[in-house]
Amino acid sequence: MSGTAPWPTASLIQTGRLDLEPLRTEHAREAVTLLDDTRLHVFTGGSPATLDELEARFVRQSTGHSPDGSQAWLNWMVRNRSVGQIVGTVQATVDGSAPDCHEAEIAWVVGVAHQGRGYGREAALAMAAWLREQGVDLLRAHIHPRHEASAAIARALGMAATHLTVEGEVRWTTAGQ
Q1: What is the CATH number of the domain that holds 30?
Q2: Backbone angles phi, psi at 59, to 5 degrees
Q3: Is the pLDDT of residue 35 over 90?
Q4: Those residues with Cβ within 8 angstroms of residue 109's Cβ, 6 or more apart along the chain or in another chain
Q5: Over the stretch 77-108, which tens digit does the pLDDT of each residue have?
Q6: Average pLDDT over the chain, rounded to an integer
Q7: What is the pLDDT of residues 104-160, one digit of tens each?
Q8: Is the pLDDT of residue 4 over 90?
Q9: Which string of b and e fits 50-69 if b means at least 16 CB within 10 Å?
Q10: Does any domain span residue 116?
Q11: Residue 66, C-beta contacts closer than 8 angstroms, at least 6 positions apart
Q12: Which of 74, 85, 121, 133 has its CA 20 to 30 A from that of 104?
């Protein structure tokens, strides 16, 4: 796929309990509180972003593609529809450089106060189904070896751990790569 190829645009995805809303800059004001917890960085490193940092990140991510056009950036805020509250995020970076295969690097985050309710699994499954409808053939994630909750979500997506470790995280994939 060339740098000028049209990428899918994130659209609203609904599950039984959740709305996956395409990322907008305006989400930063609500998300900053959800993401302002150092426990979310235990496995990934870093620290919570300030509102200004989060707004700047959301401006970049909401463009929907990398600056050179080689990747689609698809980001959603996960909202519990019954209470109207954002509970997490899901994202996919789609690479279509191989002419016969579109691959997506996926990730998910659920706010600490909302963990243990199946939101991450439900949102990731819905995103993965949507990605497949868009022609994505392979899903990939990088998960810290001690992050059991994320490993469980990856298994629910049909992914398996590989022997490859990148920056301390194990690569999981839906194919034998």
Answers
A1: 3.40.630.30
A2: -60, -50
A3: no
A4: 35, 40, 88, 89, 90, 120
A5: 999 999 999 999 999 999 877 666 689 999 99
A6: 90
A7: 999 999 999 999 999 999 999 999 999 999 989 899 999 999 999 999 999 999 999
A8: no
A9: eeeebbebbeebbebbeeee
A10: yes
A11: 73
A12: 85
- 141 in a domain, yes or no? yes
Residues 6+ apart with CB under 8 A from 57: 28, 49
Q: Is residue 74 part of a domain?
A: yes
Residue 40's identity, in one-letter code, is L
> 76 near 58, Cβ under 8 Å?
no
Q: Which domain holds residue 54?
A: 13-173
The residue whose two tokens read 């909750």 is 149
**C-alpha dihedral sign at 110, 118, 90, 174:** positive
Domain assignment present for 4 = no
